[in-house]
Amino acid sequence: MSVFDAFGLIRQDWLDVGDGHQLFLAQYGDADGIPVLYLHGGPGAGCSLDELALFRVKGLRIYMLDQRAAGRSKPYGRLEGNDLVNLLTDIEKVRQWAGVARWCLLGGSFGATLGYLYSCIYPQRVLAQVLWSLFIPSAAGIDWLYGRRGVAQIFSSQYRQFVRRVDDTDQLLQQFEQDFNDQDSEIRDEAIQRWLAWELALAAPGMSIDNVEQGRVLARIELHYARHDYFGAYPLMQQVGALLQCPTVILQGELDWVCPQRLVDDFLSQFGPPLLRSRLVNSGHHTLIDTRMRQAVSDAVGQMIRYIKHQ
User: Fold this and answer.
1) Residues of the chain whose pLDDT is less than 70?
2) Any idea where the domains of the chain sit in the sequence?
3) What is the pLDDT of residues 132-178, one digit of tens each?
4) 8 A C-beta contact, residue 108 and residue 133
5) What pLDDT, on a 0 to 100 scale, did the predictor assign at position 5?
6) Nearest Cα residue to 145 out of 172, 164, 179
């Protein structure tokens, strides 16, 4: 039996959340099962059916939510009304619409950031959660990812292709925004390809994004959030981190060049709940394309569900 047979489609909907945005929500599995919300990364990546393979136990009702302007949400790629507060508010609107009292969360990268924040702001709504490759949107996190003194020291040749002689991180992001909106399509396309090449070099070495429009939207939404310092996500994480109540597992890959464990544990030691630290996945990378990370996340999901069933 394939994972798609085990987790058949229950229903799919487009939910109007205001500001001209409609979110695509697909539900899989057991209509009477434990509710689990999946939060994709990016921001802007959208959900994939392949991610259902993370669930190896029955008795789940899985909510696959495409965040604003991502995946099959409408309008695709729209930046207006697309910010952190709206993404968090959308999650709560979806919960209310679905009639779910409490649910489990599962999210990676920026999806893990959203899950962490949501579980702190709405602590009574989350049963438990598994987060991986947690992105810390601090100045240090942004400099690590886009500045010359961070991961650029490891991927020096790829970084030179990425920056093209721009020294300052803020100037770099400003230049990308200018190029993304240039009237010349060759300039736009070349800048988007450089952005995606840098991301893939760090997050998924050897992989490519074959869907041109998907790559373009992902790059634009990611830049939109980076240019706006992720709309205050880090100060908010500092303010609400200690409010987290639910059992939480955070998995970070040893070879995660996007979200290094050091930044995660530095944050948690200062602003997180007592005793919460990330777990290192030996030789793990950033994304679920990596078999070690995928296995670690899947195992943690199984443990989370067994915990919930025995409560």
Assistant:
1) 1-6
2) 3-137+231-309, 140-229
3) 999 999 999 999 999 999 999 999 999 999 998 787 999 999 999 99
4) yes
5) 55
6) 172
Q: Are strands 103-108 and 34-39 parallel, antiparallel or unpaired?
A: parallel
**Reported pTM:** 0.96
CA–centroid distance for 239 within its chain: 20
What per-residue confidence (pLDDT) applies to 6?
A: 65
Sequence-distant (≥ 6) Cβ neighbours of residue 182 within 8 angstroms: 188, 191
Alpha helix positions (H), the chain: 3-6, 84-98, 110-121, 139-146, 156-163, 169-180, 185-203, 212-227, 233-240, 261-271, 291-309
Residue with tokens 């597992």: 249
Sheet strands side by side (includes 248-253): 9-18, 21-29, 60-66, 34-39, 103-108, 126-132, 248-253, 279-281
Q: Determine the pLDDT at residue 207.
A: 74
Residue in 25, 26, 30 with CA at minimum distance from that of residue 7: 30
Residues paired with residue 16 on neighbouring β-strands, in sequence order: 22
DSSP string, 102-117: SEEEEEETHHHHHHHH
Closest among 247, 217, 210, 252 to 66, alpha carbons compared: 217
Domain 3-137+231-309 class in CATH: alpha beta
CB 271 within 8 A of CB 165: no
